[in-house]
Design a protein that fits this description.
With about 120 residues, the chain is mainly β. It has one domain. Helices cover about 10% and strands about 50% of the residues. Strands 1-6-9-8-7 form a five-stranded antiparallel beta sheet. The chain is elongated, with a radius of gyration of 18 Å. The chain starts with 11 loop residues before the first strand and ends with a strand.
């Protein structure tokens, strides 16, 4: 399995846990709920770089072109937790600004699949 490229860590990340429940409220006032899935799923993780170098951007784009929907190993930068992940549709977007010459604001969305122990 390929490994996430060695580029600067994102300046921010957002994601969450998807754990829907089947819920029922009864006329008697009772309440019941059960999870739909046996294990909560991860929501897509949005990685953002406020000022990524063109070299790191080219590395990320080349990695995406090679991987696309194929799973890869990704390490969460701040915790070191290892995840099997894949890119989602329309995974990479970027913005150029004359305020930060030689740098790009980049957003990349990946789907964590499962934690690797």
């Amino acid at each position: 399995m390929n490994v996430w490229p060695d580029i600067v860590a994102p300046s921010s990340m957002s994601g969450g846990i998807f754990d829907p429940l089947d819920e029922a409220n009864m006329e008697t006032g009772d309440d019941a709920a059960r999870p739909r899935f046996s294990v909560p799923r991860q929501q897509p993780m949005r990685l953002e770089w406020a000022a990524m170098s063109y070299a790191d951007f080219d590395t990320l784009v080349a990695f995406h072109a090679n991987q696309r929907s194929t799973p890869f190993l990704w390490m969460r930068p701040r915790t070191g937790a290892q995840w099997e992940a894949r890119f989602v549709s329309n995974a990479i977007t970027h913005n150029e600004s004359r305020d930060t010459p030689g740098r790009l604001a980049v957003q990349c969305t990946i789907q964590p699949i499962r934690r690797v122990e």
